[in-house]
Amino acid sequence: MRKPLIAGNWKMHKTINEAIDLVNGIKRELLDFESADIAVCPAFTALSSVWEVLINTNIKLGAQNLYWEAKGAFTGEISCDMLKDCGCYYVIIGHSERRKYFHETDETVNKRIKAALASGLFPIVCVGETLEEREGEKTISVVKNQLQGAFNGFSNEEVDKIVIAYEPVWAIGTGKTATPQQAGEVHAFIRGWVRENFSDAGAGSIRILYGGSVKPSNIKELMNEADIDGALVGGACLDADSFVSIVTNSI
Ligand code: PGA
Known about the structure:
This protein is 43% helix and 15% strand. It is an alpha/beta fold.
């Protein structure tokens, strides 16, 4: 049985004080909530302060990116150890905004996952097609290529530690959610791909989140799909009430 995971991707929002307010609001309501795993992924600058609020709670901290080298002359980058130092447990890797604006490729996604796993961080790996690709009926081949690139060279044990997020690019921040059927189809493909390339057990246990305009009002129907195990939430996670409702409506 896969435990749902609801993760909030705060993107480039919230100063330190705003982040503390938001996470306190979430913690107040969800402190005793055990039916789903919960994670918040603030900007780098707020990680430590948010961690101080979350220490010894059921709510996990995640980062939105990392760099694969351990240390050195890489101005502006952040290593796995630095993230762990701030209390991070998860790290989002290969978000479509990173691919689009910061030239992230399947190869660099793979390097980031490798570094995260080696350091003990749990990667949330994002895949998903653009509108043009969906309209060209290329969804499955695009997602397959992204998976092949991202998972290249990993063992079954490593794959067990990875969370996948299927995020159709056309649904991110647009208010246009994929229908449960559209998402469910791709999730089923992803699980089948893991079965084929790794193991039955791995396919059975890997969590596949949906992301793209998830809201309190649509999480239930998405979660009704057999292969949807949770959500990566953007816009609707920036307000405590809305994020809390998504978490409580997810089970
Ligand atoms: P959204 O973003 O919920 O605002 O569509 C999701 C994401 O980018 O992870």
